[in-house]
Amino acid sequence: MSLVLYNTLTKKKEPLQPIEDGKIGMYVCGVTVYDKSHLGHAKSAINFDLIVRYLRHRGYEVNHITNFTDVDDKIIQRAKELSMDPMALSQQIIDDYFRSMDALKAERATTYPRATETMDDIIDMVEGLVQKGIAYESNGSVYFSVRKAKEYGKLSGQTLDQTVAGARIDPSEDKRDPMDFAVWKAAKPGEVSWTSPWGEGRPGWHIECSAMCLKHIGKTVDIHGGGTDLIFPHHENEILQSEAYNDAQFVKYWMHNGMLTIDEEKMSKSQKNFFLIDEVLAKYSPQVVRFFILNANYRHPLEYDSSSLDDSQRALETLQNSYDEMKAHAAIADGDDDAERLCGDVWSDFETKMDDDFNSRDAIAVMYDFAREANKLRGEGRLSRKGADSVVGIFNQFNGLFGVLVSESRLKLVKEGAQALDETEIDKMLSQDHIPDGDVDRLVRARQDARERKDFATADNIRGSLAEKGVDIQDTQEGAVWKRK
RNA sequence: GCCGGGGUGACAGAGAGGCCAUGUGGCGGACUGCAGAUCCGCAGACAGGAGUUCAAAUCUCCUUCCCGGCUCCA
After folding, report:
1. What is the ipTM of this complex?
2. Same domain, A224 and A355
3. Do A235 and A357 share a domain, yes or no?
4. Which nucleotides of B are covered by protein (CB under 7 A)?
5. How much of chain A is helix, strand and coil, in % rounded to 5?
6. Domains identified in chain A, total number
7. What is the pLDDT of residue A336?
8. CA of A306 to C1' of B57 (A)
């Protein structure tokens, strides 16, 4: 079975065939660093994180490039508002971005080029476009002449005339055609700028991606990703520049992630309807946030509301419980091979789902079925320690890609049986702010003793008091287990 | 207006011609002193209208509503 992915360019799912066997050059548009990252950025990063992890799992060597737009109008404006140096501001935001994405357990890209570090390549490209006569200088700025492009709108389906009719374009008098876009912008007095053949200035928005793709990947990149909001004009213009400059196809597969929405509206800074990653992680674990995002198709919009993460937390608990219990499982039966068979089937099912355009939602559904089957074997006393280890192995493989489960063992099985404790000792232990593991064990055994004496008041008091300290006791067929929440 | 993508059970969200999606929640049952966890079962759906087909949530057409883009955006 081969992996297929949805290509925005052709609007079809296509088998993945990299230019070079086994290697993938992948460019994902990063962020403009003028303000802290919000949950929408997290969605994009986590969607592509899973894609990269899965491609690697499938044996591809992935060169993953994500850029930082660290000079542009917004950064300059924001820096001015804060009376900061724009470069200091962008560095601060980049630091925040890394902190947030690390906290979300998104793997880092291979390289994070910055516009300001790619200046020579950008200027080379602009010069090349001017030499080819497809871009022109005007008052210190350089514009790309869209009417000279061979093809226009092949990604977005837009035609030039329709777009002109849309008429929300900047009618700069420097442009020969209103649809032309800047590849180099002349600096206004006092702005940060770089020296170029056209005087002091800085890059247009789109050109950095074209230059970075060429520099870090090549004339043609296998996969180019970004949000759906970038399709037009950003990605369309990247195609125009790169293909004009390189005389080669720019991108084989375009992949776009759907927007995170709130009340059906895109989460964005300009709408002021965003939640910062910091804020969200103060209340929910990174696993819950990842699960919320990965439990939906990356291509489709995902609706967020106040209960979304609570729902995800509850839903995830089912998988986490099964995972925990499989790890803590004490062998009941020996030599059964039901678990082995179960594990053999589930992983190929899982990969089949993921091979179909990274269908993480269906892949998770496979995991739920798997957890139920494994729980059933265990409940029926047909699970050996070896079988449980195989089940845990599948969970680990799944988690290596999705990163939605807490891998540390949370569940503690109390090995010794019931043991009486006198009341004052119980109260003393329960009154501690933090009850050490050893004491929890003793309390659980004391509770067991109380239960055997049918002293349910004492038993329930121990369970209730421990629950208040964040320790959950559960009675199972194998005895009592507990975990810290 | 134009270009994309959508409208699926209480909710979140897969699926893209025939076969159970899945999860949370609800209801019933098993287990339990009670909880919880777990297991079993039940209910409940494909925006509306025409058409193609033996068969349509899935294909075609029309209507309608929503979202994204056409300005910076993941």
Report:
1. 0.94
2. no
3. no
4. 1-5, 11-16, 21-25, 32-40, 66-74
5. 50, 20, 35
6. 3
7. 63
8. 29
